[in-house]
Amino acid sequence: MRLSRRALIAATAATALSHPANADQNTFTVLLDWFVNPDHAPLFCAKYTGAFTRAGLEVTLTAPTDPDIPPRLVAAGHADMALSYQTQLYLLCDAGLPLRRTGTLINQPLNTLMALPKSGIHKIADLKGKKIGYSVAGVEDVLIGTMLHAAGLTLNDVQLININFNIVTALISNEVDAVIGGYRNFEENELKEKGFNPIVFLPESYGVPPSDELIMMSNANALSDPRLPKFLTAVKEGTAALHKDPKGLWQKFIADQTTLNDQLNKTAWFQTIPYFQTDPAKLNAKRYETYRDFLFKNALIKQSNPVSSYAVQIPT
Fold first, then answer.
1. For 1, what's the count of Cα atoms within 13 Å in the CB-facing half-sphere?
2. If you classify domain 3-108+212-309 with CATH, what class do you get?
3. Hey, which of 167, 244, 256, 304 would disulfide with 296, CB 3.0 to 4.6 Å?
4. Could you read off the pLDDT of 24-34 as tens digits, one per residue?
5. What distance in Å separates the CA atoms of residue 163 and residue 134, rounded to the nearest whole number?
6. Tens of pLDDT, residues 99-121
7. pTM score
């Protein structure tokens, strides 16, 4: 999720650092991408329904203090798996880190470009001369530029402002006219709860290839780990349970995560269910190839390697 929520994180990556991967053949350490939230529902459902236990695994789900840390800890062998994003995967592999996508949690993009009606922005062409807030330099510049191109515009036609993940605040306060990086299952709903009706543009509708939003990364040297297929099978069971009993598992989730018992997280919980990949191990190789080509074309990665250099499908 977003860096502006740093204050909500209760757990740290210290557990992973003190328990190296493979320390016990029954334990399995998973570092989340950020603080616990409904995007992680299948993992917690696997825990609540006993799927991890049936797989013979003692799974620890740990939230990091910094979202950049989890993949690097896995690359260093200090944890078994990290949640991260498809875009990030290519950047990390391009930097030489021994990582592979071994599973998918959310198999469609959640990212959006949003504006409020008062900005006068109702179509991409209306962004001309406007201020657009971003948080991740390089990556989001390319996304914005690609979307602008669909309307015959370039980055020279807009003003980019770094809002440091303060997406909702930046829009409401008129610091910017539009923002990129808000999720369609969270910030969009947050704005609606506050009485706003955001205009939402989906990047994949304006030339940006669709990507998996939330993926599972493993160390490239641990792909034969026998615990890996067991974990993926358990997550598959957790996802199936979520589809079967979303209300009952929501109650277990908020009993476990009491600070998330509010309307915003409840809305996100039920809205996100269709976004979860029913078979986490399944790899859409064509999607990974297309997105690789997109990043390479836009000079975000220096090498265009085979898909197997980034992502694999683990037999389960």
1. 24
2. alpha beta
3. 304
4. 689 999 999 99
5. 6
6. 999 999 999 999 999 999 999 99
7. 0.91
